Amino acid sequence: MKGRYFTEQERQILEEIIRHRRTELGENFLSQEIPETVLNRLIWAALSAPSVGFSQPWEFVIIRDASIKEKIKACFEIENEKAKKIFNDKPLYNQFKLEGIQTTPINIAIFYKPSSSPVLGQTSMKKAGPYSVCLAVQNLWLMARAENIGVCWLSILDEQKVKRILNAPDENELIAYLCIGYVKEFTERPQLEIANWETRKSQESLIYYDSYHQDSNS
Amino acid sequence: MKGRYFTEQERQILEEIIRHRRTELGENFLSQEIPETVLNRLIWAALSAPSVGFSQPWEFVIIRDASIKEKIKACFEIENEKAKKIFNDKPLYNQFKLEGIQTTPINIAIFYKPSSSPVLGQTSMKKAGPYSVCLAVQNLWLMARAENIGVCWLSILDEQKVKRILNAPDENELIAYLCIGYVKEFTERPQLEIANWETRKSQESLIYYDSYHQDSNS
After folding, report:
1. pLDDT of residue B36
2. What is the pLDDT at residue B9?
3. Contact B86 A203 (CB under 8 A)
4. Contact state of A10 with B16 under an 8 Å Cβ cutoff
5. Do the chains contact at B4 and A10, CB–CB below 8 Å?
6. Where are the alpha helices (DSSP H) in A87-158?
7. How far apart are CA B143 and CA B138, in angstroms?
8. pLDDT band for position A216 (50/70/90)?
9. Global confidence as pTM
10. DSSP annotation string for B34-46
């Protein structure tokens, strides 16, 4: 094989990073600043993700401004009130602090920008565009973990309102809104698993071979 | 900070893996089998991705059966003929072998399975569900690279036809169809960049601060 060969020891380090990556809830964040060189490495990781037809259909808005954060927080509060009604049979919901907008030094809004011309690989499945942007998010997330920095993907937001707050072009789609900061602790297991909100699914229940069979557990 | 601390040396290994990860075009694949233990590590990486509300809304169909692959290949051929018409002003398109369905030992179709009950974090942005599945794809892709295994994300497919071929439940959405195998070479740069199909965008053109400004390059 030509090209960079990775050893088993190197593979195990990736495994460790993947294993210890967490979704942070808001109260775990520290206000400590993220150095510019570190932020640049997170962005570099995102920009190094695969994308359909090498179209790189992503744009990033790095948010530190308190007044912008305040508007996003207000947007979250409205959406979270709606969510509380949906989960009114589960009082545990109210105990989670599901955002870190103002408790993290940096928020990053990540957008999909559609191409004005046809994109190789996107002619049959349009959604390969926005999906490419998600791959960039995961690269950034893993790099953050390797920097010992926590990430919260905040999706309890009204996309159209966020676009207006950030003055985003009409054609752009909001893919992810991330709150990023150092944390007090990386827990051994996901925080929603520890809280017994959800349990981990077994691998066997999620894997099929060759096709979904009629007698499968689907 | 409590929890696993990653060193700068460990971070650099992740950087290397991200830097050398490629999207493979079909002619680069080798037929060599992927050991079961290696495949299990790829699946483990996918299942360790973050997901909205820890919902783990993913299902995987691991395909080795030649007759299934033949049907998927036929589906690709039809969609690729349509694509060739779209790119008829770019003869370069015809030179790419954009799939590795039969030249790889393993294909994996990855689906989003919607939850039958409300999911924490998904009440305002429904698409956080399918986006979670993309994060699993990227975890798998990086682990494959660390195993010195190549991945081709094949999106030149008709989703409904693929679902019928695989007998997928109606409510499932096809997120990604991956062709996975050892390769002759990991190139230094993306193959579509080397071929001058697309150029790499500059970081400055993709980053905004606090909001999109009226005088920005958007």
Report:
1. 98
2. 98
3. no
4. yes
5. no
6. 128-146
7. 8
8. very low
9. 0.97
10. PPHHHHHHHHHHH
Residue A137 sits in which domain range? 23-184
B149-153/A207-209 β-pairing: unpaired
The H or E element that residue A151 is part of is: strand A149-153
| Average pLDDT of span A160-170 | 98
Report yes or no on B14 lying in a domain.
no
pLDDT of residue A218: 42
Measured in residues, chain A has a length of 218
Kindly provide the residue ranges of all beta strands, DSSP E only, lying in B46-112, ordered along the sequence.
58-63, 106-112
The minimal CB distance from B169 to the residues A64, A142, A212 is found for: A212
Residues 78-97 of B with CB under 8 A from A: 79, 82-83, 86-87, 93, 96
* Number of domains forming the structure of chain B: 1
In a domain, B109, yes or no: yes
CATH of the domain at B134: 3.40.109.10
Quote the minimal CA–CA distance from B182 to chain A in Å. Answer: 9
- A174 inside domain: yes
Those residues of chain B that have pLDDT short of 70 are 214-218
Q: Give the residue on A whose Cα is nearest the Cα of B89.
A: A118
Question: Which residue of A13, A184, A197 is the best one to mutate when testing the B interface, meaning the one whose CB has the most B CBs within 10 A?
Answer: A13
Report if residue B199 sits inside a domain: no
* Residue A33 near chain B (CB below 8 Å): no
Give the three-state DSSP class for A84.
helix
CA B103 to chain A, closest CA, distance in angstroms equals 16
- What is the complex's ipTM, to 2 decimals? 0.97
The pLDDT value given to residue B214: 56
Q: Which of B217, B19, B20 is nearest to A59 (CA)?
A: B217
- Find residues 111-130 of chain B whose CB sits inside 8 Å of chain A: 113, 118, 120-125, 127-128, 130
Looking at the partner chain, which of A3, A43, A193 has a beta carbon nearest the beta carbon of B207?
A43
Does the pLDDT value for residue A183 go beyond 70? yes
3-class secondary structure, A141 = helix
Residue of A113, A122, A210, A217 for testing the chain B interface, max B β-carbons within 10 Å: A210
At A217, is the pLDDT very low, low, confident or very high (cuts 50, 70, 90)?
very low
* pLDDT tens-digit map of A128-142: 999 999 999 999 999
pLDDT tens digit sequence for A11-24:
999 999 999 999 99
